[in-house]
Write a structure and sequence with these properties.
Largest sheet: 6 strands, parallel
Order of helices and strands: EHEHEEHHEHEHHEEEHHEHHHHEEEHHHH
CATH topology of the domain at 5-89 and 108-171 and 313-353: LDH C-terminal domain-like
Distance between the termini: 49 Å
Strand order of the largest sheet: 3-2-1-4-5-6
CATH class of the domain at 5-89 and 108-171 and 313-353: Alpha Beta
Shape: globular
């Protein structure tokens, strides 16, 4: 059987670049194909090329490896184009979070919602759309897979502003069947040491999960007809007790995304009768943990993202890649501990026509009956080289429905602002955002971020409105 041509834009990615190399070498569907690495930094590209060559040699994989700093040189006839790019990720997220905190807005991740999510989208969407336009010209049948946060906003941007390209967006969190396995282990349906999810088990399991990426909720969970939601709540309450003990330890260094997650989850579970399945992000999507209240609250407000800590993690990971690439660490060390990846599992199944379902971000198309067809949601989908088709889901419960609609409106407005450089639309996105709570603060935060990130944002943000009007009239 033939094998695909896969182009990765952002080969030096913290999460995906090296994972794609290992998975492509391992897959019988992919290992005879072509991997085209693209990175605008020549040094990064050279390291990743040497790393890839060593992995493919170690795993005896006949992958055709090519690379370029110019994506157009390698896009022709691609079957898949994976977006995994970002420029000085931790640096700009740090700016977003630090300035936002001045205005009473706390973000533990700063790349999906709040001013951090909005401004990262402003930085990334125009680039993604340009990449899509090139793909439409040079590889019109290719599937573009967005792996860049905020994944749902970039997915909306591609859907709205590059509809000529087949695209969807993904996140590593809902990688199936592993996401379902983690949930079923928690409630005792699977043993703690289970390594797979048997079909005969899944025939008796019903999991209702609905929502936007990073803001999904388990609204129902049964096994052989038995409701397991009460048991899930009991498990969560026990985790809260254990978490409290751990966080009292003075040596504990819980990350911003990891701190008080059980306590936040339990509060949301009791509030809405549903389990927030991505709490490390979900806690950032709601105003309840921002510290606005007049009374002492438990748990404490969310901890703000630490850019320096994240940069250290990224630097350490990159140093390992360099050592594997230059031979100071044996490449066998990486080959032995390489792991599966969501994007490559999807590519393998789509190209190999394996018929697997995956949870990806795409237009609703009626799957969730009480949301619009073009609502961009994280949905179970049937996927092949011809189409990505969401499978029927359950209605969004009241309460959660309102929260989700507000986030969808924020995402839609953000994508529009990113493509128009319209400050009025941007302010509207800021004021729609669920964790922005003051008009004057929102305006000041927006203007300060626009000034602080002038070196990376599109020049259109700094053209006077009068000049914009004249330019529009000429068009």
């Amino acid at each position: 059987m033939s094998s695909p041509k896969i182009v990765i834009i952002g080969a030096g990615s913290y999460f995906f670049g090296k994972a794609l190399v290992w998975n492509m070498a391992k897959s019988p569907v992919l290992r005879n194909g072509t991997l085209a690495m693209v990175d605008t930094d020549q040094h990064v590209l050279d390291i990743m090329m040497r790393f890839g060559e060593k992995v493919f040699k170690e795993m005896d994989a006949p992958v055709n490896l090519i690379g370029s700093t110019d994506r157009r040189e390698v896009l022709k006839d691609a079957d898949f184009v994976v977006l995994s790019f970002s420029e000085r990720n931790a640096h700009y997220r740090g700016i977003d979070c630090k300035i936002s905190q001045k205005y009473g807005i706390r973000m533990c991740s700063g790349d999906t919602i709040g001013p951090g999510g909005i401004f990262r989208a402003l930085r990334e969407i125009p680039r993604a759309v340009d990449m899509a336009k090139d793909t439409a010209e040079l590889a019109p049948r290719a599937w573009m897979i967005n792996y860049v946060n905020p994944t749902s906003v970039l997915g909306i941007g591609l859907m709205r502003y590059a509809p000529e390209v087949n695209s969807f967006a993904i996140c590593d969190g809902p990688h199936q069947p592993y996401s379902d396995m983690r949930l079923l282990k928690r409630v005792g349906v699977l043993p703690a040491d289970a390594t797979d999810l048997p079909d005969e088990i899944m025939q008796d399991v019903q999991i209702n999960e609905v929502g936007i990426n990073h803001f999904t909720w388990i609204t129902g969970l049964t096994f052989k007809g038995k409701d397991l939601m009460p048991h899930l709540r009991e498990q969560l309450a026990e985790e809260v007790r254990n978490e409290a003990k751990v966080l009292k330890d003075p040596d504990n260094n819980a990350s911003a995304k990891g701190k008080y997650n059980a306590a936040y989850s339990l509060q949301l579970f009791d509030m809405f009768g549903a389990y927030p399945n991505r709490i490390a992000h979900t806690k950032e999507y709601v105003p309840y943990f921002q510290g606005y209240g007049a009374l002492p609250n438990e748990p404490e407000p969310i901890t703000v993202f630490n850019a320096e800590e994240r940069q250290q993690q990224m630097d350490t990971a990159w140093q390992q890649v360099e050592e594997w690439a230059n031979g100071t660490r044996p490449i066998s060390e990486y080959v032995e501990k390489g792991k599966i990846d969501h994007a490559t599992d999807i590519i393998e199944s789509m190209y190999g026509n394996l018929g697997k379902r995956f949870r990806v971000n795409t237009a609703n198309k009626g799957a969730v009956p009480n949301l619009a067809d073009d609502a961009f949601l994280e949905l179970d989908c049937e996927m092949n080289m011809e189409s990505v088709t969401p499978t029927p889901s359950v209605p969004m419960p009241r309460g959660i429905l309102g929260l989700e609609q507000q986030v969808l409106d924020t995402h839609e407005l953000t994508a529009e602002a990113a493509m128009t450089c319209d400050r009025n639309i941007l302010l509207r996105a800021m004021m729609t955002d669920p964790i922005v709570n003051n008009y004057e603060d929102a305006k000041a935060c927006m203007e300060e971020l626009l000034e602080a990130e002038k070196d990376i944002l599109p020049a259109g943000w700094y053209v006077s409105e009068e000049k914009k009007d004249k330019r529009t009239a000429l068009v």
